[in-house]
């Protein structure tokens, strides 16, 4: 799957991923009204509104981008109905040939970790048959429990030709409370990066990149430059662009000299673009067109920064 992701990035010339992280407040009123008219102001109605919102954004952007990243918590808040919308979103994106990164941030051990891995990336045995549960292409994993929590995911990825992005240095302001703590003179995030690189060396794709990648926030460009050198063969998923403050010029060092090695995420900066002054002209009725314009602007920003850095 890492090879497909790289091929899609090269084809689109867009090393970006759209974060499908819908809050109900992002969904325009006309979408909500239609869903509530059919299902009432219920969890089912909310899930329908989110699904229709996602579908429109995907329809307006899929030809520009290589991948999407739905964040499962935004769906779980609506219970089972929300998870159904999550699954419909995953399936629809795959029908458009988009790579789907399930932002699930799971982290457990033993049979529990294996069950998470099977549910999201693998197949579960039911009698004489097997079924794919959520069936994302990649998943995000929290490595706090060590190799015991990561290895079951790696095993399933090997079987199913899928991939991982392991949390190394996250974009949030308080990430340093743990991730920056020094151990034998090195910050913890660097030690985690070294472990990701080790796992990656054992699981390489034809592209020369591993299917074991890392998450490193755009809000920490200096750490990103260090970690790029620590993990030369690991793809880096970079959250924190746009709404969290990251700009194209901050991201140059996340990439390798081949122009690959990183994929940058923007969530509300794209899916709620119509609420921004820059895209207000589109209006709520044309929110999908606003999202497309935001994608185009993001591609231009990142490509411009990469070109200037050469």
UniProtKB/TrEMBL annotation:
It catalyses: orotidine 5'-phosphate + H(+) = UMP + CO2. Keywords: Decarboxylase, Lyase, Pyrimidine biosynthesis. Its EC number is 4.1.1.23. It is an enzyme of class 4 (lyase). GO terms for molecular function: orotidine-5'-phosphate decarboxylase activity. Residues 15-282 form the Orotidine 5'-phosphate decarboxylase domain. InterPro entries: Aldolase_TIM, OMPdecase_type-2, OMPdeCOase_dom, RibuloseP-bd_barrel. The active site is at residue 105. Pathway: Pyrimidine metabolism; UMP biosynthesis via de novo pathway; UMP from orotate: step 2/2. Pfam families: OMPdecase. It comes from the Bacteria. Belongs to the OMP decarboxylase family. Type 2 subfamily. PANTHER family: OROTIDINE 5'-PHOSPHATE DECARBOXYLASE (PTHR43375:SF1). This is Orotidine 5'-phosphate decarboxylase.
